[in-house]
């Protein structure tokens, strides 16, 4: 879970909303200065970027919270702690001395609209993210029609500071994992129009992007009727490569059942245009725990997916999500999960301690694990993750790759490893490199080809 705000920390108060516009002078009202707080997943980040781009097109300036006339908060409900953080963030924003107009959207806003809106009079809940930009502009007497509804990002880096723009191609989820409530907040699975996705890719590339990241709540569930056939994710990737010249496409997290031979063939045959990185969600490396989680695969199925991926792409980098301390997880089950992860050899792991989420079956399940035990298991798994990442990085020495420069002197490889590059190379440049060596933190020393 992330809390992303504008990097500046200036503490300058600005005029209140009332000082900016009046009902009698809507045509001359200036667009408000806006700040963004993003809580949660990759999809939230992409949605925040889209809202920021819409407001930027309308003339708004992205500023720190203390300078903002309006603050947009994209909320997260993945855990009870995430919900609590959402309430705290909304309260803090609403209490700023200059009383900004606060808009809360996202999962918590969907689940608890009345509660969030009651936090303060200057808090507005907007469940429909597509209406957030117009909501803000209307509040300040600006012309709502000045917002371009295409949803295309207009700048790279994005208004909120990201250099590899994300494109949301799918939303919602039809699975019912016992620890998750996101399906309630997001609704059933749905997919974006192919032509709209192509348009977004072209728009980001026109503004300098060399890589786009396809995101979704359940990305592998993408399906859309297109030119007489139903496209799944492999077909969408093929269309993007056919209809655009974007240099690199990256997939965000994907479920094990969606690692199909067709998908692997498309990635392997893309000649590097699709990043050879697969973040395949695991959650546990123990079948007994997976059954209690109500996950729709076994460890044997997962291992088979990994083997097929490595058969087609020997140097593919693998990422995953893992929960430790899920209700009922015994020492033996944790040991089984640990061994499975070690056998797979992940390049990147997101490790979470189980957190009760009110409204989910797991929250009231027997066998809740002691927090101290969870903390110890988390430390053990983080140590393994660091060891595996270093081992996987060493295997890349001498190989060629491409790097998107994200900040001065640093970039990201196809396999999502940090790479040290010449500081004179401009941000958001794509360069071909040879991997020369590995630093102790698993970052790569590269030489430009």
Textual characterization of the structure:
This protein is an alpha/beta fold. The chain contains 14 helices and 21 strands. It has helices at residues 17-20, 42-57, 80-94, 107-111, 113-117, 132-139, 182-186, 194-206, 233-243, 261-268, 287-293, 299-312, 331-344, 371-394; strands at 2-4, 33-40, 61-62, 70-75, 101-106, 123-125, 166-168, 170-171, 190-191, 211-215, 223-226, 229-232, 248-251, 277-279, 317-324, 348-353, 400-407, 410-413, 418-420, 430-438, 444-448. The strands form six sheets. Strands 1, 2, 3, 4, 5 and 6 form a six-stranded mixed beta sheet that branches. Strands 17-18-19-21-20 form a five-stranded mixed β-barrel. A hairpin with a 2-residue loop joins strand 11 (223-226) and strand 12. The chain is globular. The chain starts with a strand and ends with a strand. 45% of the residues are buried. The model is unreliable at 1-28 and 145-157 (pLDDT under 50). Keywords: 4Fe-4S, Iron, Iron-sulfur, Metal-binding, S-adenosyl-L-methionine, Transferase.
Q: Could you give a short description of this structure?
A:
The protein has 14 helices and 21 strands. The protein is α/β, with parallel strands linked by helices and 449 residues long.
Question: What structural keywords apply?
Answer:
alpha/beta, iron-sulfur, 6-stranded mixed sheet, iron, metal-binding, Elp3/MiaA/NifB-like_rSAM
How would a textbook summarize the main sheet?
6 strands, mixed
Pairing-aware structural class of the strands and helices?
A: alpha/beta
Can you tell me the overall shape? globular
- Alpha carbon gap, first and last residue: 36 Å
Poorly predicted runs are: 1-28, 145-157
Helical content stands at 25-40%
Count of helical stretches: 14
Number of strands: 21
Strand content: 15-25%
Average pLDDT over all residues: 89
Radius of gyration: 22 Å
Cofactor: [4Fe-4S] cluster
Organism: Fannyhessea vaginae PB189-T1-4
Protein name: tRNA methylthiotransferase YqeV
Keywords: 4Fe-4S, Iron, Iron-sulfur, Metal-binding, S-adenosyl-L-methionine, Transferase
